[in-house]
Amino acid sequence: MGLPDTSFFSTLYGPLYNPKSPLADKNGFRKDYIDAMRELKITNMRWPGGNFVMGYDWKDGIGPQNKRPRRLNLAWGGYESNEVGTDEWIALNKAIGSENVVCVNLGLGMGSILDACYWVEYCNHPKGTYYSDFRIKNGNPQPYNVKIWDLGNEVDGYPWELGHMSADDYVKVAREAAKAMRSVDRSIKLVASGSSYYEPTRTMKGFKNPIYISFDEWGIMGRNFLSVLPVAQCFNSFIRNADIVKMANFTMLTSLLQEDREKGTFKTPLFYMFKSFSNNCHGFAIDTYVQCDTFNTNKYKGIPYLDVTSVYNPSTNTIMINVVNRHKDEAITAEVVSVAIPFINDAEVTVINQNSLDEPFSFDKKDKYVPSIKQVQTNGNKLVYTFEPHSFTQIKVKIKEL
What we know:
Blueprint: H1 31-40, E1 44-47, E2 71-72, E3 79-80, H2 86-96, E4 99-104, H3 113-124, H4 130-137, E5 148-151, H5 167-184, E6 189-192, E7 213-218, H6 228-240, E8 245-250, E9 257-260, E10 264-267, H7 269-280, E11 284-286, E12 294-295, E13 303-304, E14 306-313, E15 318-325, E16 332-337, E17 343-352, E18 372-376, E19 382-387, E20 391-399
Parallel strand pairs: 1-4, 4-5, 5-6, 7-8
Antiparallel strand pairs: 2-3, 9-10, 11-14, 12-13, 14-15, 15-20, 16-19, 17-18, 17-20
Helix pairs in contact: 3-4, 3-5, 6-7
């Protein structure tokens, strides 16, 4: 997870952190969002992130909250109160049960690399140094043991990034930052910032170890059903490439719940679709062959209407089949075949869909957003199902024990 901000809208202050809310916990975070993230079984959250981090000084966010400086938000305009800093963010992750991912400032940071080292020291060193003892003084005697650290954010993004560097210059800085930060804690894992400019013709050579990918910012504001299907397709893409995609952080955390300011928060199809993946798709990605009608865009040709992935969970002998019907108007009937092993019993089919793609989500219709669930008969290693237009469907089916 991650949180972006603009000068007009904050995804942190107000929606998530609001000590004045009757729903606030002892740390000021709203319990309705905490409960929702626990239900989604969020595994990690990245902070701070986006352009904001390139002008952020982490030391502004430690110590007594009423003594923290109020700063200009150099990336987006407006102000940063620093009410939420390292200790508060750690507390939020503990409440959710998620792991911390900290992104250091390699842009305008004062001393950048040294400041990053001090941040690791504050979080992970047991005691006996300036910043570890400062953490203890702030009421946190045990080290946080933050294991995953991002080395900056979109550093070569021009002209929008503060402290912009060329890709070549960033590599030099990131290499030295990695060396220095691991001098503080050898156990940490580091995530380098990929280039902001995709170049399919560029090849990487000379690496001794495998290169994995963390999609540390992805997502869309979930205001209507049109936003749900692209997120489902992103999940499918991550599953298809699970051999190299090892982490992904959905940027718009607070959009996973919608809020009516008069009536409260409510769950939307985006929430339920996200939950279908985050709760159910554990295990191993299975190579899935799809044969169906296709369509073309100005840029791409031969795109299958059905976007499909499959996940096998050996602990339950269950296969989850995730299907997005990208056709706006037509249902598609397909035969689902297991070439390896027969199905057992009926399949459980969960459907998430809405008649309108553009209608804004509404509190008064929240009961209609709950997915429909039904049983579909299997026949040996086959089942036949008709996928509704513009829909997400998840099929749960057991197989014989391998």
